[in-house]
Amino acid sequence: xxxxxxxxxxxxxxxxxxxxxxxxxxxxxxxxxxxxxxxxxxxxxxxxxxxxxxxxxxxxxxxxxxxxxxxxxxxxxxxxxxxxxxxxxxxxxxxxxxxxxxxxxxxxxxxxxxxxxxxxxxxxxxxxxxxxxxxxxxxxxxxxxxxxxxxxxxxxxxxxxxxxxxxxxxxxxxxxxxxxxxxxxxxxxxxxxxxxxxxxxxxxxxxxxxxxxxxxxxxxxxxxxxxxxxxxxxxxxxxxxxxxxxxxxxxxxxxxxxxxxxxxxxxxxxxxxxxxxxxxxxxxxxxxxxxxxxxxxxxxxxxxxxxxxxxxxxxxxxxxxxxxxxxxxxxxxxxxxxxxxxxxxxxxxxxxxxxxxxxx
Amino acid sequence: xxxxxxxxxxxxxxxxxxxxxxxxxxxxxxxxxxxxxxxxxxxxxxxxxxxxxxxxxxxxxxxxxxxxxxxxxxxxxxxxxxxxxxxxxxxxxxxxxxxxxxxxxxxxxxxxxxxxxxxxxxxxxxxxxxxxxxxxxxxxxxxxxxxxxxxxxxxxxxxxxxxxxxxxxxxxxxxxxxxxxxxxxxxxxxxxxxxxxxxxxxxx
Lengths: 360, 204
Hints:
The complex is a heterodimer of chains A (360) and B (204). By secondary structure, chain A is of the alpha+beta class. Chain A has ten helices and twelve strands. In chain A, the strands form two sheets. In chain A, strands 1, 2, 3, 4, 5, 6, 7, 8, 9 and 12 form a ten-stranded antiparallel sheet that branches. In chain A, strands 10-11 form a two-stranded antiparallel ribbon. In chain A, a hairpin with a 4-residue loop joins strand 3 and strand 4. At the A-B interface, helix 1, helix 2, helix 3 and helix 6 of A face helix 2, helix 3, helix 4, helix 5 and helix 6 of B.
C-alpha cells in the first residue's frame, strides 16, 4: 500500500492549498444561490396539501397504454369538453423530477443533464408490492379514434391509475371507492404469475429488466436493435432500421414509467439515431412547452416525443400530419390534411407509492 | 455516531435517509457552508487523483457540491458526510468517463484557477513503473486500492462508499493487492523498451 501512496497524483496538502483560492469561495456562493427543488423522495415526509385536483381521481382505460390497457377490464371514463388549463412546465410528481442542472436547449445538453440528474437522484427500483401511479391526459375526438384521431382533438380524457410493480394487480377508483382487479396479462403456466407487459419491440419489461439495461446509449441502442431483430412476428418498416429504434423507444416511454437513468440513456439513443431530430419547442396536450425528439414516418406522419427541458422527464407525445395524405386499408380510405393532429397525450404525473389510491 | 455506518450502507444501496436540520434558509446555508469548508479539499483531492484534468475536476466538484446543496437533508453529519460526498463524486466521475461530460458556466473561474495552480506529478522512472502497474489493474481494483491508499479510508468506510460489506472489502482488497503485486513484478521483469527493427526499415 505504501507504493500506492507514493504515486498519489495529488497530496492532501496540495489539495488544501488549491481550495484556498477565491474561485472556491465564489463557487460556494453560486451554489447556495441555486434554487432548491423539493425532492420527490422526500415528499412522503410532509402532509400533502389537499387541492380540488387532488380529489378529482378519474379512471379510464388508457387509450394507447399497452401495459394498463392490457390489464384493465372496465372503467369510468371522464371527458372534458374543452382544452385543459395550462400547467407549469415542471412535472409535479414524475419520478424524473430530480434536481435540475439547467434548461436543455440541445440534444446533447438534454442527454448530459438528464444523465447527471439521474445520477444525483434516487434509484427508481420499485419493490414488487409497491405501486406505480400514473395520471394521463389523452386527446379524443367526437369523430372517433382507431389508432389515431379521426377528427379535431376536441375532447380530453384524464385517467389516474395504479399498477402494482410486479404487474399482478391494477387499481382504479369507482364511485369514490378503490377497486383493485387482478391482471389479465398472460400468465406463466409454471408459476401462474402474470408476465410483465411487452411494448412494441421489447421483451417483457419488468423493472428488474429495465434496471439491468445499459446506461451507455451506444450499448442500449445495440440492445434495442437486437430486440427488434428478435421480434417473433413480421413487423414491417416501422419495426426495422433507425425508424424501428425510434418507435421502440417511443413505445416504451408511452407505456411504462421509466427509471430516470434509463430515460436519460434512451434520450442518448434518440440523439444518435440519424432519422431523429431534436425539437426546441413542442407543446403538449396540457399546454406545457417542452423540447423533444421527432421523426417523420411514411412521408407524412411526424411523431414527436415531448420532454420537460428542466426536469428531463417524459411529458407525452404529439403526432401530426406534416403533409396531406390518404391512406387506404381494409376499413376504407382516410384522408389527413396537413397540420392535423393524429395523436396527443400528456403524462401529468407519476411515481412510486406504497398503496393503490395513494398519490406520490 | 452510532448507526451511521449502517445508514451509509443503506444509502449506498439507493436508500434516501434524511438528516433534517432545524431553522430556515439561513441555517440551511450555514450547514452547507460547513459541509463545503470541511470537505472541499478532500473531495478535490479525490477528483484530481482520478482525472488529473483541471477542467473535468472543476465540473465534477461543482456537480458534487450542487448535489449536496440540493439534497442537504440526505448528507450525514460529521465524517460520514465525506463518505456520502465521495459516493456522489464517484457517480459524477463515472458519467464523465462514459463521455457524458458537461461544462457548467459557474465553474469558469474555478477551471481557470485550477489550471493555473495545479501541477501534475512528475514521476521518477521507478514511480512511473509503479503507476503503470497500477493503471494496468481493472478499475474496481484501482478504486479499492486508491480509497485506502490515497483517501486513507478504513475497510468500513470503503464498504460504505462502494456499497458492499466489510467482509467483501477485505476479500476484494486481498485479491487486488495480489493482482497489483503481480502486475508490478511482471513489469519489473520486463526488459527496458528498445526499438524493434521490422521490415521496410520502419521501427515499431
